[in-house]
Amino acid sequence: MAPTSTPPYVPPIPPPPPLPGVHVQPPMVYIPAIWEYKHLATEPGADEQELNSLGARGWELVGIVPLASATHFYFKRLRR
Predict the structure, then answer these.
(1) Which end of the chain has less neighbouring CB within 10 Å, N or C?
(2) 75: exposed, middle or buried (C-beta count within 10 Å: 0-12, 13-18, 19+)?
(3) Model confidence over 25-69: pLDDT tens digits?
């Protein structure tokens, strides 16, 4: 029977040291925002408490259409 030999241990090669003054930044990946929208129609003289409540829940007021019969408020927020 022939003697078996183990191959000599070869340590892993370490990565080269970084070059001075060279900074590598990972790539930026942009993900488009997905919005959800809300429409609120109230009689003239909107309830400030209701508007503040919507703002506290993340809704951003993006448009107002005042009409004689009602005021229309349009909101948006990022979909979670």
Answers:
(1) N
(2) buried
(3) 888 888 899 999 999 998 877 688 999 999 999 999 999 999 888
Burial class, 32, CB count within 10 angstroms (exposed 0-12 / middle 13-18 / buried 19+): exposed
CB 73 within 8 A of CB 42: yes
Q: In what order do the strands lie in the sheet containing 71-78?
A: 35-42, 71-78, 60-66
Structure pTM?
0.60
Kindly tell me if the per-residue pLDDT of 79 is higher than 80: yes
